[in-house]
Amino acid sequence: MKALAVNHQLDAGPGVFAEEAHAKGWALDEWLIPSGEPPPADPLTYDAVLSFGGAMHADQESEHPWLAQEKEILSGLLDAGVPTMGVCLGSQLLAEAAGASVVRADEPEIGWFDIEVTTQGARDPVIGALAPRFEALQWHSYRSPLPPYAVELALSPLALQAYRIGEVAWGIQFHAEASEIDASSWAVNYAVDEDAVRIGIDPDFLGAQILERIGEWNALGRGLCGRFLEAAS
């Protein structure tokens, strides 16, 4: 089995999802789409495709023209029934590919936030193990409404946190993939995010939280990725 990781920046890759994929015997290609290089292979030929996060926003196609390209790719994956997962920005791009309109959230979610799994989410093969609620690492300023014909799987007070389109496509707003190295880098470099500065993020406090909680969080992330790959098999 072979998967494609679509990355948007160097410190926001597949993280512990890559570890889980390799542990389950999957081959994983990585594609840094902003580089302008073509993908390692046609995304439609993979057994699963995962799209990850990034500091850019889903509506910034004028600044990042590749966003339009990725939305077209994700739309094609949905049409073809290729198992797909979007994470944070990737989740928002997947939602747009499915017909939703991503908007700026009332407030950013940066740090650890409570998430409630819905009744339908509790029955979902990927999200169900997290019911009835869990606390998640987040870093986003935009949110997506539920795409047409999608199933709402998890919510926070501020945003949709997980959804499923059909039987093989999932979006998650939280950073279940984040490795200690990547998450710590985000905290250290928080000042590049004007919303993080505006709401007064304390990078030392956030960094300490990450170091304290990342082990348990990574176990959750590996489990979630493993369930997705099982559903994709």
Polypeptide structure, described:
The protein is of the alpha/beta class and 233 residues long. The chain has a single domain (2-232), classed as Class I glutamine amidotransferase (GATase) domain (Rossmann fold), CATH 3.40.50.880. 34% of the residues lie in helices and 27% in strands. It contains 7 helices and 9 strands; from the N terminus they run βαββαβαβαββββααα. It has helices spanning 16-23, 66-80, 89-97, 119-122, 180-188, 194-198, 203-232, and strands at residues 2-7, 27-32, 48-51, 84-87, 103-117, 133-143, 150-155, 160-165, 169-172. α5 packs antiparallel against α7 (203-232). The N and C termini lie close together (8 Å). The relative contact order is 0.17. The mean pLDDT is 96.
Task: Based on the model shown, name its key terms.
7 helices, Rossmann fold, alpha/beta, 9 strands, 233 residues, globular, 34% helix, 27% strand
CATH architecture descriptor: 3-Layer(aba) Sandwich
Count of structural domains: 1
Along the chain, the helix and strand elements come as EHEEHEHEHEEEEHHH
Query: What is the count of β-strands?
Result: 9
